[in-house]
Design brief:
Elements: E1 2-5, H1 18-47, E2 52-59, H2 62-72, H3 78-84, E3 89-95, H4 98-109, E4 115-121, E5 134-143, E6 147-159, H5 160-175, H6 182-218
Parallel strand pairs: 1-6, 3-6
Antiparallel strand pairs: 2-3, 4-5, 5-6
Bound molecules: ligand 0O2.
């Protein structure tokens, strides 16, 4: 078996159709999803606590891929999709508390067969819009019958509250194609502040509750 780098220096004969490319990305998604479920189960077993609330996996539509390539100024070829579109396969991991985000990111980075290509930390550095999420581009090896294909997956990690906000903001972005009325944008910035406040308060409440149950256990 030989290892194929799907991201760089790919020979055209290696993956010769979009259908095959999609098959590889879907396999990569399944692998990351299963890995995360296993880590979550193990965490539950060891610490009696689930850091992951739920996981959403999705393939980017060909229309969105072509739109992104156009935005980047590249022709719509399969090679360019593989090379320049990092989120053809995307997985979103939703957790309860902000502290879970970095815990999950570390668990991913520590997996031997996963390579972290890049990280965007919009938790520590939120966007001006108020967007908060932790993004990782990783590669995972997909084992085909005759070769191993290192495949890119975009991982987004955020809390339930951040996800709620991002869904509405995304809807607004698409509805107004980036040109939303000012009062809506301002209201969303305010809501983002409420989300951050809620996340911080829920985290400290959870820590207090955990501390209390430990004390209770001692009595
Ligand atoms: P869609 O429609 O969700 O697929 P890159 O992917 O690295 O080449 P980019 O966009 O600079 O390009 O990466 P980044 O900032 O990590 O964003 C990747 C994805 O995160 C976006 O994909 C969105 O899904 C989400 N995202 C980023 N910024 C925002 C934001 O301000 N609001 C919301 N709601 N989501 C955001 P796409 O392809 O842009 O969009």
């Amino acid at each position: 078996m030989h290892q194929v780098e799907l991201r760089l220096g790919r020979d055209d004969s290696d993956v010769d159709s979009w259908t095959e490319v999609q098959l590889v990305y879907k396999a990569a998604l399944r692998q990351i999803q299963t890995k995360m479920e296993i880590l979550n189960d193990e965490f539950q077993h060891v610490h009696r606590y689930n850091p992951i609330e739920h996981i959403k996996a999705r393939m980017k539509t060909p229309e969105s891929i072509v739109k992104k390539l156009k935005r980047y100024g590249y022709a719509s070829t399969i090679d360019n999709m593989i090379e320049y579109v990092n989120d053809i396969a995307g997985i979103r991991i939703i957790c309860s508390f902000t502290s879970d985000i970095y815990r999950i990111a570390d668990m991913i980075a520590e997996q031997k067969d996963i390579q972290v290509v890049s990280v965007k930390d919009y938790i520590t550095y939120p966007k001006a819009s108020g967007y908060k999420s932790y993004h990782m581009i990783v590669t995972v090896p997909v084992y085909l019958s005759d070769r191993i294909v290192d495949t890119k997956v975009e991982v987004q990690i955020r809390t339930v509250a951040m996800d709620f906000w991002a869904s509405l903001e995304h809807k607004m972005h698409y509805k107004f194609e980036g040109d939303a009325p000012r009062h809506i944008k301002e209201e969303l910035v305010q809501c983002a502040k409420l989300v951050s406040d809620l996340d911080a308060r829920m985290l400290s409440l959870n820590e207090e509750i955990l501390g209390m149950s430990e004390e209770d256990g001692q009595h």
